[in-house]
Amino acid sequence: MVCVGKRLVLDQLVFAPAFIPTFMSFLMVLEGNAREIPGRLKAAWFETVASNWVIWVPAQILNFRLIPVTYQVGQCVRGYRTSGCICPKN
Fold it and tell me: Measured over all CA atoms, what is the biggest interatomic distance in the chain, rounded to whole angstroms?
């Protein structure tokens, strides 16, 4: 369970807070609202991250606990190749 906790912290306290504003900014650029990026990020970033935690913390606990690493979507999408260093197999 310690390994699950380490991966969850890495995912939700490092990757998610950095990925969310990147995604929001890219979406605003595609919509033609690039000038609004700073204001909208200041207004919506924390609420969006908190909503992300409500949804994804339980989902990632199940994912990291029950799904074998080779079948986890995060393994491919977010680059969890570092998890081998964080949670080495004995």
Answer: 50
Report the alpha-carbon distance of residue 32 to residue 88 in Å, rounded.
Answer: 44
pLDDT, one tens digit per residue, over 12-28 is 999 999 999 999 999 99
d(CA 20, CA 88): 28
Q: Per the confidence metrics, is the pTM higher than 0.70? A: no
Phi-psi group of 72: left, alpha or beta (phi > 0 → left; psi -120 to 50 → alpha; rest → beta): beta
Is the distance from CB of 25 to CB of 41 less than 8 angstroms? Answer: yes
